[in-house]
Every structure is written in C-alpha cells, then in structure tokens.
Write a structure and sequence with these properties.
Blueprint (H helix, E strand, L loop, with lengths): L1 H18 L21 E9 L5 E9 L5 E8 L14 H4 L2 H8 L3 E6 L27 H15 L3 E10 L1 H9 L7 E7 L12 E2 L2 E2 L4 H8 L15 H7 L2 H8 L5 H8 L5 H4 L3 H6 L7 E6 L8 H10 L8 E6 L12 E2 L2 E2 L4 H19 L10 E5 L4 E5 L9 E6 L3 E3 L9 E6 L31 H4 L5 E4 L7 E15 L5 E9 L14 E10 L18 E14 L4 E7 L28 E6 L7 E4 L4
Parallel strand pairs: 3-4, 3-5, 5-6, 6-9, 9-10, 10-13
Antiparallel strand pairs: 1-2, 2-4, 7-8, 11-12, 13-14, 15-16, 15-25, 17-24, 18-23, 19-22, 19-24, 19-25, 20-21, 20-23
Length: 627
C-alpha cells in the first residue's frame, strides 16, 4: 500500500510540474523605456497615403514654438533613418549642418522615402519617369510630391501653409519633378546638383560614354530596397574592371545582368527617346515658371555636372522680370554645400564657402519666400564663387560672358589665341584600349567605399598624365596678366584615327608656378578646371551611332562643364587630349561595333590618333573669357 501511495504521489508531482505556470525569465531590459527629456522639438513618423493608396514613410520634425511655421520637404531614395540623430533634446544638435539653422529659426523639416525605397510601400523604378511616353501609370514623383504637400498642410499642426522643396542629386531631380504641376502651397524650391539628363552629362553617360565605374551607386539603387553595397573581393578595381571586358561583363560580375534597370541603361547607349523624354531641361521648357527657384551648382561636381545649368537656362528664358530664377555656383564637389566647404582635395578656398552660402544665400532665399522676410542683402539673380581669386561675385545672369575666344592647340605642344598657319600640322599618339589611361592614380577604389576620395578626384593633380605617350599635351607660356573664364567651355577637335570609332577626352588645366609660397605642395600643381569625354560615333547625331571613316580629318565637338576661374599671372594654361578615361568610363574598342557595352574582346585594338593643329583644321577650346 505504501508503495502504491508513493507512486501516486510521484505521478501527481509530475503532473503538477507539467501544468505549473512558467517562471518569468530574468531580464534587465524593460518592454518599453524612454528617457525623460524636455525636447525642444516633436518627432513624428507617419505613413502618408498617395492617391493610389500607396503609403510613403515620412519623418516630421516640428520645433516647439508658438508661431505658425513653414515646412521644408526633402524626398530621397537613400533612406531617412539618419535624417535626425536622437542624441540630444535639442533639434539643432540632432540635425545635420544644413538643417540646424532652419530648426533653430522655426522651420518644420520633413523627410520622406520615395515609393518602393526603405520604409515606403510600392514599387521602385530607377529615375522613375514622369507620366507620359515612358510612364503609362497614374502616378509619378510629381503627383507623389503634390499628395505629400497636400497631406502635410492639412495635418501638421502649427504650419503656416507655405512649403519649400529642397534636395541634392537624386533629391534635386525629385525637387524639380515636384515643380511640375506644383501644389499651390509650394512657394520655393532649391534643387541642388540635380540629375537632369542622364545621357548628355549626368550620372549614367557623358556625351555617349557610359560611366561604368559608377556601378556601385547604381547597384545600391537597383539590387535591393535598402541600398546594398557590391562585394568585389579586390582592393583595386582596375583589374576586375579590365578583366570584365566591357560594361556588360562588369554587370555580370556583380549579378546585375538579370535586372531590368541595368539592361535599360545598356540598351539605350544612344540618345534615344528613353533619355530624351526624361530630360528635365526640356520637360520644364513646356511648363510655366510658377515657383521661385534657387538652383545650386558645384564647379567640381563629379556626378551631375550638366543638369543644373541646363535647367537654369531653361527657366531663365521664362523669367521676364528676373525675380523667379536664381543660381548659386560654388567651388564644390557633389553635395559639398551641405558640409564643410573650406577646401577640396589639396585646393584651399580661404574660407568655409559652404557655410557662407547656406546662410547668406540659401536660407535668405527660403526666409524671403516662406517667412516673408526681406533680407538685409537681397539674394542676387546669380551668386558665383570665382576660383583662382577665391572671391564671391554676383551677376544678373549666367553666363556672365556671352562671347568666347578660341584658344588654339598649336604645333610643338603650345597654346595660344592666334590661329596657326601651319597647314597639315598635327600631334599624334597611339591609344591602346588594352592599356587605357586611368581617370586617376591607382589604386581605383569604389566610388562610395569607406575610404573613398571619389568626391575630390576632379581636383587631382594631372601631372601623372601630362607626360604619358598616349596623352597629347599642350601648354601656354606663363601668363603676364590674369585671365578669367566664366561660362560654358567646349572643345572642337579636328582629329583623325586609324580605327572606325574613338573616344575623345579634353581637359582644361591651370598649371601652378613651380613654387607656391603659401602652400608648398601646390608648386607645379596641375588643376583641372573643366574636362569631359565624348564618344566619336555620335559626332553627327547623338541619336544614332555611325562608324568613323579611318584616316579622315573630322571635327568633334566636345561639350565640357562650365567654369568660373581666374588663371593668375605666372600660371600657365594646359590642355590634355586622350582617348580613354578608365575605369570611370567604359573602353571604346576603337573598331566600330553595334554596341560598345557588349563589344567582343577581338574588337579592342590599338589605333593611332592625330589631333590636327594647323590651318583650317586647327583644333581649339572655346573659352568664355570675361576679363
């Protein structure tokens, strides 16, 4: 009996243990905790509905002030999570340099992920076209901006009904799109370093040459919703880019060859309707100018050197009273006006140009149009920093110089403003696409890697290239007087090739004196002032490739970025001409093939290039000499 009782008791104990409530797991971290801070701002995260039901992730930062406040909206594909660091009860400490002054002065800041990116719903299309030939849908970035502004003015407390748009690069493109059929509350726009025309001179192509070295930026936009980085497995990208063979091979190495966005870029190597229909300078030409606009351009913008000034010219033609379209030009890399602007690479400007511009021009512009303030010093129609003299100057329009002077490439590697008489003279070099000219000194790092100096490459010293046998170099005598160029730069090369296709790279360079007292490392420095590339197959028509007749002297017009620079006395002017800029731009095989991006290895052949420098076929650079 005792045994049976003992067994029963044991079973009961087991059964009780099975149904007994679990003991809480020890945990020092509470389910919810918030530090008690007396913040001077309110942070709201909302999902704003668009007209098609898609909701966009939006961060709203509202200063705790009594008066009604304007709102400045920035829309981005790059993620808004870092827009406001939660590290202080003061909004101005949490914000970046560009936002602190606005939050301190009673502006509501709004940040938004565009559709399909990061925290927003919907599908993402790279550089999503406006409704029209390339977009048969009912929404685009213009309608999303309209719907966002409409929701904000109706739902954000203490707003004054006035909204501004601001953004750089892709955000500049989005700002410009928001100006098309704008919401009535949109009272000011500041597009900066904007992507405008992806074939002519922004981001994807420059004058027909594909920017394959920019592939890691493209990868981050199309390979994942949250912007992943590619894995190369090599420190120096020169070899993997060369081994890939062509742009299609680069895409295959990274797994992009199956993605529609990548293939669209390769399939539209000419200036097809795909590019023309999206060129915002032409789209805006068909729209009224109804929003006061301040366009921001960097003289050393390594990504979008064409678009801002193209849009400025379009809008300026509509600004009859010269009071709606404004331009700010600084000595900046892509986006540098939002950070420290005291220097760029080895070149020092003598002051923080970015801080001055943010406070004296950009904020003054917003204050006038969103707060109704009259600035102590009115914002000039054009405010431009002049490199060389390192001074800010104002003007009524850009360019400040309507005419140009021809700077001739002369026999013997010289430069001068007098046309040469030597008929038949030329400079010659052999261009081998299997040994291309690098766009900068190796090692070549990813443009957005942790140790990248991509932002400063346009100010790299060009001495490494001046003595290469595959670069034709021309240099002036030391200048007796200062020479200032202000406006558009372009080169006309009279050239021949033994091949049936060719690329032409032209660089305009300021050569410093052998010794510079104020900064020793600038002695003999060769600073690019303007430079670009063009693909010879598009010499006659950017919409259609055409083989080059071997040995025939033909004119090639090379569009180059605008300059605002003074060559000081004692400096020299240099022009370099070459036929590759690798691996930033894909290699031209120099034998005509239907698609350079998919050229076979057998097509890449060395060819002899001649730059003609005499008589009626004298090559030259058009300089907008202002004084």
């Amino acid at each position: 009996m005792k045994v049976m009782v003992s067994v029963a008791a044991g079973l009961a104990t087991l059964l009780f243990a099975a149904v007994a409530p679990a003991q809480p797991v020890p945990n020092d971290i509470p389910a919810r905790f918030e530090q008690p801070l007396a913040r001077d701002f309110e942070r709201r995260e909302v999902m704003i509905p668009m007209r098609d039901g898609v909701k966009l992730n939006t961060l709203i930062v509202i200063p705790k002030r009594g008066e009604p406040m304007p709102m400045i909206v920035g829309r981005t594909p790059y993620g808004i999570s870092g827009a406001l660091r939660d590290m202080s009860p003061k909004a101005t400490i949490n914000a970046g340099l560009a936002d602190a002054d606005y939050l301190a002065d009673g502006y509501i800041r709004v940040y938004q992920d565009i559709r399909g990116r990061h925290g927003s719903e919907g599908g993402y299309i790279l550089n999503s076209p406006l409704r029209g030939p390339q977009n048969a849908g009912k929404t685009d970035q213009s309608t999303d901006t309209w719907d966002t502004i409409d929701w904000l003015v109706k739902n954000v407390p203490n707003n004054n009904g006035r909204v501004g748009l601001a953004g750089g690069s892709y955000g500049g493109l989005l700002t410009l799109m928001g100006m098309i059929n704008p919401h009535p509350a949109l009272q000011a726009a500041v597009p900066m370093y904007s992507m405008v025309d992806g074939w002519t001179g922004d981001d994807f192509y420059h004058n027909g040459a594909f920017r394959q070295g920019y592939v890691d930026w493209m990868y981050g936009l199309i390979a994942g919703k949250d912007g992943p980085d590619p894995i190369w497995g090599e420190y120096d990208l020169w070899d993997p880019m060369l081994e890939a063979g062509n742009a299609e091979g680069v895409g295959k190495r990274l797994g992009l060859d199956g993605l529609p966005a990548w293939n669209r870029l390769l399939d539209n190597a000419a200036y097809t309707a795909f590019w023309r229909d999206q060129a915002l300078q032409d789209v805006l030409a068909k729209q009224p100018l109804s929003v006061p606009t301040l366009l921001v351009h960097g003289l050393f913008d390594q990504e979008d050197s064409f678009g801002t000034l193209a849009v400025y010219k379009t809008l300026e033609a509509k600004d009859a009273r010269n009071d709606m379209n404004f331009l700010l030009v600084g000595p900046w890399f892509h986006g540098q006006s939002q950070t420290d602007g005291s220097s760029l690479g080895n070149v020092k400007w003598g002051s923080d140009t970015s801080l001055w511009a943010r406070r004296k021009v950009i904020k003054a512009f917003f204050d006038q149009h969103l707060k109704g303030r009259t600035p102590a010093t009115p914002v000039a129609p054009v405010t431009a920093f002049e490199t060389g003299t390192n001074e800010w100057r104002t003007a009524q329009a850009w360019p400040t110089t309507p005419a140009t002077r021809k700077l001739y490439l002369l026999p013997g590697g010289r430069l001068g403003f007098d046309a040469p008489a030597d008929e038949g003279a030329y400079a010659e070099y052999v261009a081998d696409p299997n040994r291309p000219v690098p766009y900068r000194r190796r090692p070549i790092r990813p443009v957005y890697g942790p140790d990248s100096t991509w932002s400063q490459w346009l100010t790299d010293d060009q001495r490494d290239f001046a003595t290469r046998p595959d670069v034709a170099t021309f240099v002036s005598a030391p200048l007796a007087e200062a020479l200032t160029v202000s406006g558009d730069v372009a080169a006309t090369l009279f050239a021949s090739t033994t091949g049936s296709d060719a690329d032409w790279v032209v660089k305009l360079i300021d050569v410093y004196p052998p010794e510079v007292r104020e900064q020793a490392n600038m002695g003999g420095y060769e600073l690019m002032i303007s430079a670009d590339i063009m693909r010879g197959r598009y010499r006659e028509d950017p919409k259609a490739a055409k083989a080059i007749a071997p040995g025939q002297v033909l004119p090639y017009r090379v569009r180059m970025p605008a300059a605002n620079h003074t060559f000081l006395p004692g400096h020299r002017i240099m022009v370099q001409v070459q036929s590759s800029w690798f691996p930033l731009y894909d290699r031209n095989p120099q034998t005509f093939v239907p698609e350079v991006a998919r050229a076979p290895a057998s097509a890449y052949r060395a060819q002899t290039q001649r730059i003609h420098v005499g008589g009626a076929a004298a090559s030259y650079v058009d300089l907008p000499v202002s004084r």
